[in-house]
Amino acid sequence: MLGPFLETLIGGLLTGVLYSLVALGFVLIFKASGVFNFAQGAMVLFAALTVARLTDEIDGKALGLEHFVIAAAVLGAALALVGWYAWREYVARGSGPGERRRLALLAAGGALIGGVIAFAYGKGAWPLWVALAATASIMGLLAYAIERLVLRHLVNQEGIILFMATLGIANFLDGFGQTLWGSDIYTINLGLPKDPIFLFEGVFPGGLLIDPAELFAAGIAAVLVVVLAVFFQKTRVGRALRAVADDHAAAQSVGIPLNTIWLIVWTVAGLVALAAGVIWGAKLGVQFSISLIALKALPVLILGGFTSVPGAIIGGLIIGAGEKLSEIFLAPILVQAFDLAGGGIENWFAYMLALIFLLFRPQGLFGERIIERV
Amino acid sequence: MDSRLRSFPDVLLSVENISLSFGGVNALTDISFDIAKGEVRAIIGPNGAGKSSMLNCINGFYHPQHGAITYKGVRRNQMKPHEAAEQGIARTFQNIALFRGMSTLDNIMTGRNLRMKTGLLWQALHIGPARREEIEHRKAVERIIEFLEIQHIRKAPVGTLPYGLQKRVELGRALAAEPELLLLDEPMAGMNIEEKQDMCRFILDVNDEFGTTICLIEHDMSVVMDISDRVVVLDYGRKIGDGTPDEIKKNEAVITAYLGVGH
């Protein structure tokens, strides 16, 4: 009995890590701008689609000319953006005159580099690392576009208005990704061993079966979590992010540039979406339904707390393990006791758990309690 | 304390013919005055006179449609609030704008934000220069906490603090930036007499010890007359008086604005 239990538990925990990865993206943006970013799922799909399409070469149907041009332009602009940001952060510190000219120069240089990369790999399948780097810069560019075109115009607005804006972004991205890259189901090959690993074969009959892809995902998530948690709690930028979430005007008055901060969070959230998208994509195939895993992140957030990075992880683990265990062990009991058809518990277990949490601990396990002087 | 007769030769900031309107409402009309380096400058006026709008223009939250603001000899156009902060302008708000979820310490620490220089990478790793810098700034913050006598609430989330203390924390956050020009929007509103006296003492100490130029909005006339070197009076978005406290006390237009015609 212990063997299957442990196996289910470990499988559940590893799936939970994947939920955590998605939830992490939500937490980042919520912490830094007080906005529930409904577009996180769409960003996961978009990132996964981009990686899949760039590494893809199905039956000689390589990237077409239009994709080549788009890739060159986007990559160029993205590199320019990263260069400009690095310049501001490390060299110039703060904005000054001549910024537009520098930006134009960087954009030109970036487009050139982007063009070379796109030319070198444009006609065939890109190696995974090039595709990942390209997608990372595209996510940065996306963050810039979102900040420039949407958020900048909504400074000091109600949270609900920002939320509606992210709904719009979600729908746009879902469609735009498919316009750009097509709506077929793609695969991402991370080159990981496909064969399951068996552990403790001496202890349990048959051993414990573990999927190496899930183990890999857990490793990635662990690294991301540690870096992000330290970043938020201990650093200048982390404190600035929390300050922006609390009060826009006050944050600006102490010299925190709202636009840059939003650019940083959305970029980081985009990179987290990339990590989640690649891992989910490798596991399930890249298809529209990936954007729906955002809905699985909701109970994770309620459990862990909307503002806590560790909360997103613990919440994901609890949900992941809970739903698998309930499916395997709770379902048979329910079937016996109430003469039900059984099954399907996995689909609603997370939401029931979230509901119970809402009743007894609305701020989640690690969320900040809302303190209000009346 | 008598109104202090000191002389201030250098102009730090000058406002020339500023006009600001929201839609059809004229918040400020053709206002000019200057703030001298090292002085305590008060802006007074009845409710809705445009005092806060004036501070918001100086600090970059609003951009006036007409006129110019010259700061440290440089004429500024369309400055953003964080740029004003970068150039040494710090402020507090009429309705306290603290980061409610953070502790007193962290709130004041955000004021040091601009003085921290290490790059993102070091910070993400939280080692080396980033760590040393954090410690160094923490010391500066501790000095401010001591100066404002708020050691006992160092770790308390500011959302739970009483009003007077919140105002003090907000002042601390502004001071942490080591500003050249400190804008205070009604620093004593809603305080009892003792709290007001403490606040006056802090403001004067900041001015004396650090030479910080202060521009404050205040309704309590006795306070204004006591601590400021010069006073600007606004009414319905227009300037109706400008001078030392003694001059303002005798100014007919000011008396009319405050007490009505036929006082």
In short:
Chain A is an all-alpha fold and 374 residues long. Helices cover 72% and strands 2% of the residues of chain A. Chain A has a two-stranded antiparallel ribbon with strand order 1-2.
Describe the structure.
- The complex is a heterodimer of chains A (374) and B (263).
- Chain A is an all-alpha fold.
- Chain A has a domain at 2-55 and 126-180 and 211-360: Orthogonal Bundle (ABC transporter involved in vitamin B12 uptake, BtuC).
- Chain A contains 13 helices and two strands.
- Chain A has a two-stranded antiparallel sheet.
- In chain A, a hairpin with an 8-residue loop joins strand 1 (197-199) and strand 2 (208-210).
- The longest helix of chain A is centred in the first third of the chain and has 32 residues, at 2-33.
- Chain A is globular.
- Chain A starts with a helix and ends in a 14-residue tail after the last helix.
- Chain B has 263 residues and is of the alpha/beta class.
- Chain B contains ten helices and ten strands.
- Chain B has helices at 51-59, 81-86, 104-111, 120-125, 129-147, 163-176, 193-210, 221-227, 245-250, 252-259; strands at 11-22, 25-36, 40-44, 66-71, 74-76, 89-91, 181-185, 213-217, 230-235, 238-243.
- In chain B, the strands form two sheets. Chain B has a six-stranded mixed beta sheet with strand order 6-7-8-3-9-10, sandwiched between helices. A four-stranded antiparallel beta sheet of chain B has the order 2-1-4-5, with helices on one face.
